Amino acid sequence: MPHSTLTVGNVEITVLHDAEVALPFRRTFPDVPLEAWKPYIERYPDAYSNGDSLRVHFECYLVRSQGRTLLVDTGLGNATSNPNVVASIGGGIDGVLLSELEAAGFQAEDIDTVFLTHLHPDHVGWNVTRNGSQESATFPNARYVANESDWTAFDTPLDSEIFGYDWWAETVAPLRHLGVLDLINDETELTSELTVTPTPGHTPGSMSMIVNSGGERAFIMGDVFHGPAQVTETDWVFHYDMDPERAGATRKDMLEWAEQDNAAIAICHHSGFGRVIRESGKRYWQAL
Ligand SMILES: [Zn+2]
Ligand SMILES: [Zn+2]
User: Fold this and answer.
1) Residue 90 binned pLDDT confidence (cut-offs 50, 70, 90)
2) Which residues, chain by chain, have CB under 5 Å from ion ligand 2?
3) CA of 231 to the centre of ligand 2 (A)
4) Is 120 exposed, middle or buried (0-12, 13-18, 19+ CB in 10 A)?
5) Which-ligand-closest: CA of 23?
6) pTM value > 0.90
7) How far apart are CA 46 and CA 99, in angstroms?
8) How many angstroms is it from 144 CA to the middle of ligand 1?
9) Tens-place pLDDT, residues 2-44
10) 56 Cα–ligand 2 center, Å
11) How many Å lie between the centroid of ligand 2 and the Cα of residue 262?
12) How far is the CA of 8 from the centre of ligand 1 (A)?
């Protein structure tokens, strides 16, 4: 897959594609009537498939700032790194993040920070590499940064059953005993051009990366929204938003901010960068 790189002041952001699946609207947005999707399917044909499903990408982002090399999220993973999730959501197909990284000119060793927007099973897949019973950090020189509220929310057998399978023990819990995990609570500067800030609702500890360099801005927003339609329809509830009301308020605030600042925006389940534009009083996604 061709790489798309966006330059924001002195920062470079490259999309690294891990996987893609089609997920039906009735599963992802069960409260939204099918006909309500029609104008968005016409406007953004690449974002949907079959007239009844989202084309869900699993994207990660490589961010280069001030000599640092950061990775945002680690995707779905493969059959040994995240077996239950690859078998279910991924339809049994291994993700390709590591070969994408290599094609972009980098090795796993080059990553100094892995920033996890949240700890859902489809964002942590390549965290750990398993060789028999031996586990190691896939990005051996990286600190893994995540929000403590997500750690608390998911670090119990009950919560890891939300999706009907376990992922925590394979992908997230090992980070702690490998000694590579940094849990944070508040807004944190990763470099003077990159700040991660809480954007809760989808999960309690969801965070976004704010890129600010040379008078330009970009927001990498994880799962704050799930595709172009929700830029306009901020009240549409995504099935896996843990606190739908808070998720909707965060979505509205972040898109308003992105519009005001003319920021480039990116999320983890839609491919490529966009901007918020306004037409007839409504906000829309416009691909860059
Ligand atoms: Zn999520
Ligand atoms: Zn997700």
Assistant:
1) confident
2) 122, 223
3) 17
4) buried
5) 2
6) yes
7) 24
8) 17
9) 469 999 999 999 999 999 999 999 999 999 999 999 999 999 9
10) 9
11) 25
12) 25
CA of 177 to the centre of ligand 1 (A): 24
Ligand 1 centroid distance, CA of 120 (Å): 5
Cα 120 to averaged position of ligand 2 atoms, centre (Å): 6
CA angle 148, 151, 156 (to 5 degrees): 150
Domain ranges of the chain: 5-287
pLDDT cut 70: percent of the chain above it: 97
Q: What is the pLDDT of residue 255?
A: 98
Architecture per CATH, domain 5-287, reads as 4-Layer Sandwich (3.60)
